[in-house]
Amino acid sequence: MKIAHLGEKGSFSELAVRGYFGKSATTVGCADFSQVFDEVSNKRASAAVVPIENSMAGSIYENYDHLLNYNLQIIGEIYLNISHFLMALPATNITSLTHIYSHPQVLSQCKKFLKKHDTWECIPTKSTIDAITHIKKEKLHSAAAIASLPSSKYYNLAVLKSHVEDNSYNTTRFLILSHRARKKEDSLAPVKTSIAFSTPNEPGFLYKALSVFALRDINLLKIESRPMMSGKFEYIFYLDISGHYTEKAQQNALTHLQEITTMYRLLGSYPVGKTIATDLPH
Amino acid sequence: MKIAHLGEKGSFSELAVRGYFGKSATTVGCADFSQVFDEVSNKRASAAVVPIENSMAGSIYENYDHLLNYNLQIIGEIYLNISHFLMALPATNITSLTHIYSHPQVLSQCKKFLKKHDTWECIPTKSTIDAITHIKKEKLHSAAAIASLPSSKYYNLAVLKSHVEDNSYNTTRFLILSHRARKKEDSLAPVKTSIAFSTPNEPGFLYKALSVFALRDINLLKIESRPMMSGKFEYIFYLDISGHYTEKAQQNALTHLQEITTMYRLLGSYPVGKTIATDLPH
């Protein structure tokens, strides 16, 4: 089973693939998100795993766009609790460090720790894996990278300090995408359904749209609005609701919804995902 | 009048300050967003200008957090249409370029242009201004930076290519913050009000919350949900509604809303902002 994802071995996306599909899945690392979607669309991969939102950095709009532009279905989700580790070539001492390499977003998530060592110079890199491979290639003994624990194992770097992140509630949600919708299973595990729609930009239209769920006691799990890229002042709404789209109440609500929306897309029904830690040996 | 913002001369935040307050305002460049909020909170600056969302990258959650943690009021907004320019030391020829420096987010917004020149190596920097100052300091004649047009003027670099961004609808919304709420003015210009609240995590509660506006024909301009950082499965909602909070219908709706929310904050009422271009000489 081939699973497409962004980035290289040891990246968080690859961890999400392993967390969802297990160790035996064959991972296909891609250079950008459109390539990840292309791999599944062109049936070169059977599924894709893409990040969709992070509890600190917010929604990843590029992937929301791809969800609308490609005709794939969400078949699952998984949450990764993001932990960062300071790592260096074996025999490097933390007291002799002068330079810290990592992705700018990772550096900004470790501000408190880095502030305590204000003589260190922080160097941004394209990815955390780039930070690691630069240190290895140049044999830098006064430099360290900030990256995930599994990537330290994969590239044989020694961890100098664990959990250098500021906030321990840093969670990234990944979606699992496939060609085909996921059928309703005979399981008691809670299921959710993701949809996208637009309404006319007039008072009360969103309220009307949400009434189709409230009237049927269907819970709203997430709601987000976003201006359409057309430049017109119109919004796309992304909603997660409880239940499978084939259940009677959900079916009625979604039919009802389409009467009052200008655009509507069913993105998929899938079991509510688990959260996995990234601070354990891979 | 001192206005706090993130970054240096020529940054987009500084352009937003100039766009809103005019050329005579004294800008106070800060190293991070908490310092920007601190400057106003400690009354060292009379206002702050912070980015809150981008049409491509989404919400800037760090500033949403600061809005809840600091006791400031939104008194205005301004939209910047983001354009990127390729610039280098005078006498550098585009055909002799080997390295391109910029912030990773900017590089990712110029993918199509960079793909056409696949021999160029892209080097991430902490900010677009860092890219410029590096090229100037090291006197690099085979390198270019991608940054804003006003920064090319400020640092005396020559523009090699205009509008290298992939998408022309790349807009960043900035909020103007102050100690004191903005009073209702005798003007016909449309006004909006921003609020934040939480509801119990039960079916229909968000619908009930929105009913207070729908019942009074108050338009919802923006809605966003976000998991609370506490780790519990509870959401904060950010809403922009039409009108000033002192108008009768808005006052009633907001009083009504507080009966059914577990947390409520009025973030401010202010005139709907204008969009300004960033591709004109400063």
Notable characteristics:
282 residues, alpha/beta, seven-stranded mixed sheet, five-stranded mixed sheet, elongated
Structure description:
The structure is a homodimer of 282-residue chains. Chain A is an alpha/beta fold and 282 residues long. Chain A contains nine helices and 16 strands. In chain A, helix 8 packs antiparallel against helix 9 (248-258). The radius of gyration of chain A is 21 Å and the shape is elongated. The model of chain A has no long low-confidence stretch (mean pLDDT 90). The interface between A and B is large, with 44 and 44 residues.
Biggest interface in this structure?
A-B, 44 and 44 residues
Uncertain ranges of chain A: none
The secondary-structure class of chain A comes to: alpha/beta
Helix segment count of chain A?
9
Q: How far apart lie the N and C ends of chain A?
A: 20 Å
Calculate the mean pLDDT score of chain A and round it. Answer: 90
- Sheet-strand content of chain A, in percent, reads 25-35%
Rg of chain A (CA only): 21 Å
SSE pattern of chain A: EHEHEEHEEEHHEHEHEEEHEEHEE
| Gross morphology of chain A | elongated
Please state the oligomeric state of the protein chains shown: homodimer
- How many β-strand stretches of chain A? 16
Residue share in helix of chain A? 25-40%
Largest sheet of chain A: 7 strands, mixed
